[in-house]
Amino acid sequence: MNFTGYNRMTEINNNLAAIDLGTNSFHLVVVKPLPHNKFHILDSGKVTVRLGTGAIDLDAIKEDAMQRGLEAIQYFKKIADSQKAQIHAVATSAVREARNREDFISLIEKECGISINVISGHEEARLIYLGILQALPFYNNQILTIDIGGGSTEFLIGKQGNVFFSASLKLGAIRLKDRFFSTEPLKKNHVEKCRRFIRTHLNGILAETKNLERELAVASSGTAETLHMIAMSHFRKKNKNLEIVTKDEIDKIVKLLLSYDTAKKRLAIDGLDEKRADIIVGAAILMQEIMNAFQIPELHISGYALREGIIYDALNREMDKLSEIRKQSVIHLAEKFHDPRIPRSGASLHIADLSIQLYQECLRIGLIESSGENDPLLLESAAILHNIGLVIAHSSHHKHSAYIIRNTEHLTGFNLHEIEIIAQLARYHRKSFPAARHPEFKLLSDTDKKRVEIMSSILRIATGLDRSGKGVIKEIHLELNDSLVTAVLALNEEINDADPSLEIWSAEMKSELFEQTFRKKVSFRIHSVSQV
Known about the structure:
By secondary structure, the chain is α/β, with parallel strands linked by helices. 45% of the residues lie in helices and 18% in strands. The N terminus is likely disordered.
């Protein structure tokens, strides 16, 4: 099946800017695209925002942190605008977990005109991996990547751009500081409690990755760079420019840091950024425990991370190269929840094809005025996944499907907003129409509510047109005559004695939302392929 959501091939001429809204810092990079998905960095920036605090859940973004974040984005926007760069902004742990994240996102959009994509930890790990591959010559190596942020740590094992494992743990420099080192001076028992806490959290991913090969390990972002600077300043007599930190150096760094029992005293350590003096202890212990757990003798340090990954991903999106990644992640999720004992629980590829045909026909005859950039992709994905909830129960399986989609770790290449739209389309493929009394639907913008109504009405008819599951209907052509839409259906000639009566009856039963949405009546009739 062809994913029609990816049929764009364009040359990139405009400069691009990536903004990474992290828990500790916001980062900016502005680039000029070059041939072969390469880029030249024009400008960059960093602002320490401390957007999130909290030992267990980051909970909420406080008013003063929102203001700091807004000022940082306004500053970055001026830089990007000066370079006439298109901005791609991504938010991670602090925004992802905050209960008032929509307030912050709306503030940024209102004041700066910038849309923020909130991404999952797994998508964050993938983008970091893409960034690392732009910095280091490890494309053909199977590598473990480690990125310690303020609120979370991302792990990934990949080779040649393929991801074999990814995980995001709620272990970060700020989170560990708030939980174990919020008071001074440092206490030995707090250090030991921190170590035990980290080891407990690492056990799961150690078990999951024990059979995966790792040729080398790469660490990225602020913590890794700071540890590298301290190593060069204090423990490196030779090869001072070598972008590697050894296990022995990390052990010495942790010992050095623990010898200073306050953040103020730590300011005397060469190579330590003063803005990290209060959070570096937990971060360094975390890196030490990771190297111990994975038996890593040395870490390669990458100067590129999430923001460069955002740029590379944006280039790939524009050049139509994310199609296979997204398509395969959707198919993989459908197959993961396929139970051969349950009819129609697998990937609904034919329904997806019918859905896109209907969508394109609605565009052609003017029922849909314009297509959102990713709407065909989201509809197609929802069509493939709409029945995965059957593995839980037939009753309310549309709700089970939506739950699985929202909470899966397998939809690679999608941001959280896109995943939510896919989930709601699956939710409304049957039973209740989208309604304001439904909490998730109520949270959508008016534009997104309309998108869900349109696409779920199409998906309902498509599921009806494959009611038997035999692929009886092959093609759909719509005719518009005043207040009537006629769906002219071509049968699949490869099916002998195909009887479409069940499909037509089911589609008629499922047309009410479509008729309500477009304010047109719908009828169905059979025609030959040649006449269509």
